[in-house]
Structures are given as structure tokens and as C-alpha cells.
Specification:
heterodimer; A: about 230 residues; alpha+beta; B: mainly alpha; about 65% helix
Chain lengths: ~230, ~575
Amino acid sequence: MECVVQGIIETQHVEALEILLQGICGVQRDRLRVHEICLKNNPNLGNVASEVRLLCDLEQPEPTWTVKHLGGAMRGAGAEQISVLVRTMVESKVSKNALRLFNALGYKLDHELLRVGFAFHFQRGAQITVTVSSVNKMLKLHATDEAVPVTPGIQLVEVTAPASSENYTEVASAVSSFCEYLAPLLHLSKPGVSTGVVPTAAAAAVSLMSDGGGTTLFSPHTTRIKTAGLAWSI
Amino acid sequence: MEGVAMQDQSQQQQQQQQQLVPPQPVAVERLNQAVVQQLNLEAVKTRAISLFKAISRILEDFDAYARTNTTPKWQDILGQYSMVNLELFNIVDEIRKVSKAFVVHPKNVNAENATILPVMLSSKLLPEMEIDDNSKREQLLLGMQNLPIPSQIEKLKSRIDMIGAACESAEKVLADTRKAYCFGTRQGPQILPTLDKGQALKIQEQENLLRAAVNSGEGLRLPGDQRQMTPALPMHLVDLLPVGDGVHTFSDASGMYMKNTPPLSSNSIGNQGNLLQASGAQLIGRSAASPSAATSATSFDNTTASPVPYANSPRSGTNMMNTPSPQQQQQQQQQQQQQQQQQRQKMMQLPHQQQLLAQQQFRQSQMQGLGQNQMSQLHDLQGQQKFQQLHGQHQMQFSQPMGHQQFQGRQLASGHVQHGIGQSQLGQGNQLNRHLSQFSGAANSALFNAAQGTSNSQMIPNMSATVSSQSLLPRMQFGLAGNNPQRSHASQMLSDQMFNMGASNPGSMMPIQQQQQQQQQQHNTQGAFGNMQPNAQNLQSNMVALQNAQQNHPNFAQQRQQNQQ
């Protein structure tokens, strides 16, 4: 299971967001370049079509493959009260033959996309991963080198944290409290719920980018304080 | 000032209490009405009460936060604090007005206040305050105590002016920065910068696009014709995917087959089932090739010239095993036979694997082509039969076209086709068999064939003859395993074709095409299908009882006897 929220940010503010995240998370950012291939199988015998995603991390020296299955989201009154989306997720590393295997099993390519950006992995109440990436589509099959952004001016911000059925409430609250830190720049919501951009984003970005906002760090602690102090000393 | 104000406030409250508490005949001291109005004591009281309430509310909130261990919403709390601040200012203003009228509460000295009054009246500072004051004064007048007083005063005045100027400039800078960063004023509501409407709409559009793309892949799916694999695959995919030249179906298929034999062959089986739906492009691209193959080889069947379809059947004169593809052929369709022969020759020239692949493709094409070829022959049958019932059975994807094919039965369902669809259609075919067996007419032979339940044994020899791939064989066996145990031998199959229908499992999956073949065989070689005619009426009446095998049994028994000649 995982808790996930998504938000958007204008490309011009991405650098400011990076600074903010660096201040809050206290870790170095990791580059992100993932080729995501979404496979769907045709239900032959009346079963439901199932979907599986193959993620190829192109940033590593050797491309590493992961297979991921996203299940249905938690439903119900309790789910509506939680501000994050809780859904089943199964993930595993696989060898590069996974694509062939799934084709043999009858899974066909449904769509593919390329995410280029950066990510932060840190621990704050839960193991949280924040990815900021531009989502690119390929005009020709598998042509990752010629990918163009789906929306050039807007990038996607995703905050995910793995959870289990016992602790998902704590993880959800950890994720949502982390998201409050990002409030000056963007709003995060459940996938599928659109948020729009935040009006204070421009001002917050300016303040983050200015020197008073803290330079990139040698001491995460002080920078955190500095950045935090400026971002909401309104 | 504050301390005095508070004292006054308490004094006033005491006064009010004194006014309220003793309604007795004791002369109540009341303020002069005019003074009361001037002082507006009520207002002060209201303000004091509201301030008290605000503070207590904040305290309660904090208490609640502490108890439930949730993070407080700082925005709200700050707002509440600012409200409290405002109220305090207001009260202080009011008190100032009130305190102008009253200096001290106990007007008369009496025993009660004799001791406390001097303390209240003294203006001498408390010792700590006094020390503080002195030190501050020293600090202030440092270096000036020697000078005469006026100069001291002047110096202090200039100092005050300088400080005042500095404060003002600081305020100015703060205000300017606030404007530049759009922070809003310190007090009062924040004026959030709003986005331009048009811009907001554009952003909203883009956001919807992006979210849809990420979450459900909208806008990322390439239409079928654009799904041509780029010749320059990225590094991580180069070893994984076959790169076809995409020029000719054959060469494509052959190239891909050579590279990915196991997945290809197993894919083919699945694809055959999907073909009728004209499934979208696959990575391997075979299915894209096969529809074109279908159109090019309309009723192609990889049969030999021999009319006998079954390899192991003792009744078949010709040995089918001499060719890799024991496809069956209709005598009635000479044209098709010729075509088949031509294509077979073509196939012979290709390497074996490619033949298989091409056969598979052609089979698939045949399935699609069957409808066209056989419609004319079986018009009457179609009129008689009730397709709806067939659809009620196992809902296979290709139930509809298969229905056609059952009743047409002409074009042979080659063994390949059978096993292509066999696994998924077995149950359906079974049901159909029962009904079809009861139709009459020469054209019913196809029906009969379709209606006949066929077993693994018949399929398997065909398969082994046609498909050398290992993966196919076990799959087929598994698929048909549940079927008629009587059908262990092909010869038995032929003889028991009619009986088979009754006894076969309703739930088992039978390849319909193969059944057609069998029936056709019988028709061709034995001419034993005339016996179906008397049963035509029965069949029609029995069509309703789809699931009821027993109704069909008598018919089957008759036919069996007739068949066994």
C-alpha cells in the first residue's frame, strides 16, 4: 500500500521548490529519469483487464527495471476524510526480461511516458519520497530520446510513502503535514483532484531564490531554519 | 499606565458589584447618571468580558490540541491572537477615558483601607523598579551628567529625533519590501495576488492534461498506425525488443519468429483468439501482420491436396503426416483448394518455422475469411438456427464469428485454427454441437461437424503434425483435457462423433473448427450425413434445451448407429 498525493507547479518555480525541499528534507536530491511502460492485458476469458507498469531507471549506469502494480484506492467514508490517497501498490525489482515476459503473458503496450526530474527520499514520520518531474511523451514508439513534455509549462510533483494496512493513518498524517510545508508554493491533492496553482507561488519562489532564502547547503540544519523562516515570515 | 488601568478596571468592577449586590435599604452608592453615561462603563464592561472570552477560547483550543495531539492550525491561532490584541487596545482606550474621571476609589479613609491606602497612593517605585530606572537613567545620561541641564535636555532631544528618524526609515523599508514581495500589510487582511482569469484557465487545462496523462495515460496512446517501432531503440530496450523492418508481413513474421520463438508461438495462440477482434498493435507486431495476411489469403488453408483431414484416422486414405500442416480442405471449394495449394507451395519453400508462423497467420485469416466464404452455402442453416442460444454459452470473444463458422463449416477449419480457438471455445462448441447435429441437409454437414464434439485425440495429431513448437502442444492438451474420455483414439472419434455430442461435458471447451472438420470428413468420405435429415425437426425443437444433453441423446444414438455404418 502507499499514500500518494499529487500537485502541479509551474516550471519556472521548480528551482525554488528544489531549494525549499532541500531545506526541509535535509538530503541531497537524486536525479530522476524513468521510462515508464504501462502494459495492459486483454481480458480473454471475461476477466477484468489488468494493468502493470514497468519502470526503467535510466539514471543508473545500468538501467534497472522495476515492475509495479497499482491497485484500487481505498474507498469509504474514512478514505474521504483522509487528505491523501491510499491505494494498494506492489513493486519489485525485475530483470530486463520483464518486458518480454509480460508480452508473452499477453500484456500489450498501452502507453508509455518518460519522467525527467529529481527526487528526494527522506524520513519524516514515514519514508517519504518527493518527485518533481516533467512528464514526457514519445511520439514514436519507445523513442525516449525524442520525448516531448506533455505540458511544457507545468511539472508534476508527487509525494508518496509506503504504508501498510496497520499504519496507513500515521503515514497519511505524516504526508499531509509534510505537504503543509510546501503550501507557499503548491497545493497537493489526491490524484484526480485538480488543484490549480497557488497564488503565492510567485512571491514564495522569489523569496526562496533570493540570497536571504538560504544558499545551498553545507549545513542542512541552518539552511532549513533560514529557508523556513523566510518562506513564511509573512 | 497599564497597571493603573487594570487597577481602575478592578475598582470599577468592584463598584459595579457594589451597585448590584446590595439592593437592601442601605443607601446604594450610585454614580451620577451623567457621569455614567460619559464614562460608558457598560461598554468597558462588555469589552472586558469579550476579551476574557477570547482569551479563554484560545486556551481551550490549545487544550484541545494538546489532548488530541493534532497540529494546530497556526493561521487560525494567529488570527485569534490578533483579535485579542485588538480588543486589548480597545479596552485600554476606554479605560483611559474612564480614568480621567476617577483617580482613586476609596474616597474616605476608614479602618478598612487605612493600611493599604498609603501604598496605593505612593508614587515611589518598587525597589526593583527603582534600581532598573536608575540604571537606565545612567545609561542614558552617560557622558552628559556634567553638562548643565538644558544641554542635557537638548542632547536627549536630538537623540530622540535620531531614533525617531531611524525608526521611520526602517518602517519605510519594511513597507517597500512588503509591497515588492506582495506580503500584504501587517495588520488587516492579506490581499492575495490573484491569477489572471485567462491564465488560470490555461493552467487548469494544462493541469488536467498532465494529471490525466500520468494517472490514466490519456493522450499518450499512439494510434495503431503510428505504432511503428522506431529503428533506433534506446539503449535499455535494444536487446529486449525485436526490430522488424516492417516491410512485408512474411518477412516480419519470420524475422520475429526466429528471434522470439517461444513467446511468439504462445502469443500466436492467444492472438488467434484475439484476432477476430483485430486486436491492436503488439510489440511483436505479429497481429498487425496477420490481418493483412488474412486479406491476401482469403480462404487460404494450408491443406494438402488430399481431401482427408485427419492424420491418424483409419478412414482417411491419405497420410496427412507428410506435410507439416495437415489442414483440411473442402472439395466443394476448388478455388480455395487451388489457392491453398499455391500457398502451400509457398509455404514449403519457406523454412519450417516460418511455415508454421505463416500457417498460424493464415489460420487466423481463415477464421476471418470463413464468414465470407461460407455464408452462401449455409443460408438455410442460418435461418434455421438460433444463434442467440449459442451466445448464451461461454462468452468467448469470438463467439459470434465462430457461430458463423460453425454453421458454415465449409472452409476447413484447419487443425491450427482449431487449436487456436480451441481452448477458449470448447464449452461453447460443445453446446452447439448438440444442436447442430440435428440439422439436416447437405449443408448441415458443416453443422454436424461443428456440432460434433471432438476430443483431444483428434486435435493432438493434427497439432503434432502442424506445430512443432513445444509450447503449443502441452497447452492444447491442457485445454482439452477435460473432454470426452472416450475420445482417446481418432478412429473412435470419427465413429463416435454423434455420440460424442451427448456425452461430452457441457463445460468443456471444444474446438469448433475441428468439429467441422470431422463432420466434413464424414461427409466427404462416408456420406453418412443423410441420416441427419430426419432429425432436423427434432433439433429445432430441441434448440431451446441448450443445456439439456439428454434430449439430444436419442438423436445422437440414432445418428451414431447410422454413422458407424
